[in-house]
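Hey everyone, long-time lurker, first post.

I ran two proteins through the pipeline my lab uses and got sequence/structure pairs for each. Pasting them in order. The first:
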Amino acid sequence: MPEKTYDPNAIELKWAARWEDPALYQASADATRPKYYVLEMLPYPSGRLHMGHVRNYSIGDALARYMWMRGYNVLHPMGWDAFGLPAENAALKNNRQPREWTLSNIEHMKKQMKRLGFSYDWAREVATCEPEYYRWNQWFFLKMLEKDLAYRKDSLVNWCPECATVLANEQVVEGCCWRHEQTPVEQRALEQWFLRTTAYSDALLDEIKQLEAGWPERVLTMQRNWIGRSEGSEVDFEVEGGGTLRVFTTRIDTIFGATCVILAPEHPMAAALVRAEDKARLKSIIDDPGRKDPKQLDKEGFFTGHYAINPFNGRMVPIWIGNFVLMGYGTGTIMAVPAHDERDFEFCTKYGIEVRPVVRPVDDILPLVVGSAFPDEGIVESSGPFSGLPSAEARRQMNAMAAEKGFGKSAITYRLKDWGISRQRYWGTPIPVVHCKACGIVPVPESELPVRLPLDVQITGAGDSPLASHAGFVNTPCPRCQAPARRETDTMDTFIDSSWYFYRYCDNTNSGAPFESSRIAYWFPIDQYIGGVEHAILHLIYSRFWTKVMRDLGLISNAEPARNLFTQGMVLKDGAKMSKSLGNLVDPDEIVARFGADTCRLYTLFAAPPEKDMDWNDSSVEGQSRFLGRVYRFVTRNVDRRGVAGEPGAADRRALRKLHQTLKKITGDFDGRWHFNTSIAALMELVNELYLVEGEMTGSSMGSVLNTLVLMLAPLAPYMAEELWEELGHQGPVFRQAWPVFDEDLAREDEAEVVVQINGKVRARILAAHGTPGEILESMALEDAKVAPQLEGRQVMKVIVVPGKLVNIVIR
């Protein structure tokens, strides 16, 4: 057959039109087949796909197609994390309603995904901004409210005094409002809704063991640290003049060395203890945006003028305010022991606070002068009846004494805090409660869900939430007494939307429940979840929490949402993350228009191992395009040679050997660590080899080579594979064909390379036929031109032979 020219756009547009068939990728439960649920994290519909999206989705799509070919019943859905602040910002900037802006972005990004050939079951699509979805956010909230897992309390928020509104963390730029660059952001206390994630601290930590085989250790470590279980003690320090400060410490054995107590500036007692002239100073510390990263903070504070009493020795210790103490950890109060804590040492020496050592190394004495902190355990000294005890035993006895006398106890605390879900925003799920003067907070009845977002709001960026000024939304009768009442105008954190969306995929048209439990039982847990490592401690913690709540509600039986997690690397350009501000974005549409979707996808898989960052290189993209062109020409010009009679010769054996070596390599890469880059490199080597022997191959081997080559290409470059599968005269989608099985005998080289060592050092390499007996390998090694001269005049003591691999000659 005459050689054809590879025209990627013509080929891909042809197949893209055929792939519009909604049944092509549809999945349904089938108990006769093993299931495989593969999922990439759903995107925010920002307007256009970027190359990070393409890389993420290309990994998932390659895996989905491979698993179809391996006979699995594959579920591969997609949806949209569609609520969020950017839509409100776009409404301000472009005078467009958030819903209209969001839906137009979804339409465009979905079109891009289809053009890239991603194999999504679009019948399962969800968009979290639709009432059919967010009504179940509200339903879950009501269930948590019933079980005391949802509650309201005062919490600090970012406040712009010029906008007179709450700001998201993303809207605070170097401590100032994003819209008013000279206006410092303040911290204000507002009543906020919380979910009691701390009720699941132990479950989140203990059940993480179920993920050790399938999740990256880096992610598991980040989660363990975020949950942050600490075993220690709580001790009450009485405040001179009245009141109690409860301290949490993991080193109660050092308490006789406590020389001050330091409060977080937000501590409920701080305002009362601070002197009038220091009130402004206290507020400035609270408002300081640098406190969000305590590790980088210059430690500062001031004396309140008050003292507390150490209950173990009766000593009076000064009460300080410290900018590095956080309300989010422990009790918001620490006892400073500068002799045995580096952070305390830095703070106390800065302000001239006494440093009193009370723990010595096991093999040393207590120092008279302390030049640095000794943070290790040792022998307790200068500590009353506990002196001379090892640290661990001192802690045990001190906890017992504190409990006996009623001023303390052993305790466990967690770094994980309850999840604040209130957002003073419009574009999010309305919180389904009503505020009634007579009845208080009243849940909206389930029969009245969803509480719908009004679509005719005015977004100004100033003042309260846009919902608060929408009379039609706010004013409503109390569900309990029917008196006039007001709806809650906060909306939910958008991480709620993404905490359970993968369950809704399994039953996305259900109007009577979030999903049918039997459908979840078939598909869950997710077999492979794919996304960025930046989600390790928010989305992935929240989704695990949500799964455990649903399990306790009796909706599901699985303890974890995903059995396996893969975190892909970022896409860089010129060594930096792609961004508009740096002007280094690469538009996927431009790459597709120039080279085709297969080239775009193939390059993102080839440029680096998928877990590593990849640096975009235009010339390498062109290299992938040339490779696909070579494949296309080789297959199309050899279609008519299949089956032509001829006696197989050395060229056929060479081609088949390389073919099955490549098949073995790619199969191993898919089943193992997903080294798609080496899979594609192996395909390139195979094609190079086929070009070398093409003219000498017979028709009997050519058919096998062409079919297997196309099938191996199918998960990686689906458009070309589909086109060539049709060129070869086959029917049906190529990804529904059985994955070929490699033949070990065909893959084996005719000869093996055997290493020859003298006294353990490599001196030569020889080629020998497979199965060559050990005594013959020994003779070949001893007579080798490089080895024989080195044996002259030496006594051979022993020869060790590992057939097919090694000959080690031991000489004196």
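...and the second, right after it:
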Amino acid sequence: MAKNLLIVESPAKAATINKYLGSDFEVLASYGHVRDLLPKEGAVKPDEDFAMNYAVIERNRKHVDRIIKSARKAQAIYLATDLDREGEAIAWHVRELLGENNVLDGRDVYRVVFSEITPRAISDAVANPRLLSQDMVDAQQARRALDYLVGFNLSPLLWKKVQPGLSAGRVQTPALRLIVEREEEIARFEPKEYWTIEADLATFQQKEDEGFSAKLVKHQGERLQQFDIDNETQAHGLRDRLLAAAQGQLTVSRVQKRERRRNPAPPFITSTLQQEASRKLRFSAPRTMRLAQQLYEGVEIEGGKRGLITYMRTDSVNLAEEAVTELRELIQKRYGNDNVPPKPHQYNTKSRNAQEAHEAIRPTSAALTPADLKSFLNDDQLKLYTLIWQRTVACQMIHATMDTVTVEFDSAEGSTFRASGSTVRIPGFLQVYEESKPQGKEDKQVRLPPMAEGDVLKLRDIRADQHFTEPPPRYSEASLIKTLEEYSIGRPSTYASIISVLLDREYVLLEKRRFYPTDVGRVVARFLSGHFEQYVDYEFTARLEDELDAISRGEKPWLPVLEGFWSPFIERIKNKEETVSRSEARQTRTLGDDPKSGKPVTVRLGRYGPYAQIGGGDDEEDKPKFAGLRPGQSMETISLEEALELFKLPRKLGQTSQGEEVSTNIGRFGPYVRYGSSFVSLKEDDPYTIELPRALELVEQHRLERAQREISIFDSGIKVLKGRYGPYITDGNKNAKVPKDREPESLTEEECEKLLAEAPERRGRGKKASKKTAKKVAKKAAKKKATKKKAAKKKTTKKKKKKKKAAKKKASKKKASKKKAAKKVAA
């Protein structure tokens, strides 16, 4: 039986480490977080010093039970979760759970950390344990509390004012704001015209298809600015004069040669790995992180399972001393001594909020080349490993030496043409890896022919080219991550999840690898920027991250940070709940008036998305008309004419040969053609433009499909049909299976009736529907019961009153007859 229990986060990591530690250790996985805040209001209690109510995550309960069971038998417990704040918090939660279950008595609990999963790293970590860092745990708890307080208070306000089901997050909202503001910048952008003049040149030795270009950089002795030539007349006039004056040749006036050094890029951190994988491999951030996790946790190779890269959530560019030594040896062996710098390169972390000093992302052994691992990794794993291996090796190689040459040609009217070129003299690190550049900023290498002052060159032509300034580009995943990092929004470990949340919530769309905000995303971003400007401010978000870092370093207590955030935040929530109307929050846009009715035409955001509306009165007589926006239309850009087109549905197209009315419309599940009481979904056709012949074609196709589905039809309306999961019987209200031992064609009407009678009642569509239906039915039943009770009570009260009245009447009658009798006796 194992004496020690070692707990990690993932089962893959557990399987790898288990092979290294031997029979004295049992290695179990927590499967990520073991506890989280209760997913309901009151999980964080600001009035009780931000007390936090945790509960075991249900899907991980069985793993927690197994850890507790094994911990009872162990002499010592090693908490070996990841080495960042998140990992520290998981280790703390595991220890807390063990304490609550009375497992810790008389047992040693150690915290061990490692940045790579190799036998040496694991042995060193177990031999040198440390205590849990309460400062790191407090920082993570503060982050979790902040995220909870923002989400659980801001999201309900969005549901109430904008649309149900929306969410707001402390970090996702500033990221959304970046995308929306970029889109607004693009919409405001006005292109400006400018012209460039270029000379097409060649030496007299060069062939027809060879040559180079020189750009006009000076005119009348002055340096040309971008907008100095801004129209066609001016550009072509100057071009014609220069061409005439040159008479088919230009002379070299000056040649300037320089040597330029280009240094290698530092090794990968999380954000740069995501950016390069996006640009070079076209991997999304979540995909990159998933693959990196697999390489870190271990892959089966010759000699057993082992981790291939160091921990992938880091913002440190440091490399371990032994790793640098191994890299220098590898470079010397593979690329020669000339490519090894005299001293190892040292890199400084740029991020102002860099977390704990981890290592950069590197191979656990540089000796394991991508070629060695080709047969053990899948295509995606190999691509990512190759990228990491190349970048790491390159970062410890010598710089590249470039020869740059600039040649100038003086011309008429005090003009100068300039050509620049560069060549690589000593490739250095470029033999292994070259860092990619954002689109439009790539280095263009132009090789110029040898030239000296006084050389005469052939002038083939002078071109005047028109250009227009371009708006800033939309964010790609790589550029968004870079911007988030620059603004210190979030952390390396959160960039992938920020992007996933924005896409999942449909606040943004990713088209052609660029982010576009949706109407919902715009409305949410503007509502929060307008009413919660401080909390979506980039500087505020970065300052809060600084404070969380200070907590993790033990420089600041965590409760004052939460108190400073909470009081003004909840005040703002209460104020906006009272003062902001739904119409203002939904940012209704008025397009103009409907020419037929004279009523205003508006676009706004509704429960099911953006829609257009004519009119807006609440009276029955002035009931507004509604129409949903078509795919590709936006509240931001739709015109009055386009909006009025939406109200042309339903369109009557004509009739079928059987005399059924044919029309087209858009329903909850998309566009359709209706004939009689039947519907045909439109997949490629447009409901606004489809004509009767095409609609009848679709109707005929639909009828044919239905006929092929129908096996038998009885006079009573019962049908035997072919279904998705096999033949079945239906009467429109209830469905029944066809017995396996029967051919569907052989069933009689009586047999079908019997099978339908025995079949269970039809349920609502899916759990949600059945739950809703059950709730409705229960509500109705309760209402009925209450009404019955009320009626019964009324009846009883009436009866009692009647009885009382009758008794009173009887009593008064008796009294009267007694009086009469007494009077008689007296007489």
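Reply from user beta_strand_b:
Welcome! Quick read of the second one: Residues 109 and 170 are 35 Å apart (CA to CA). The chain has 22 helices and 31 strands.
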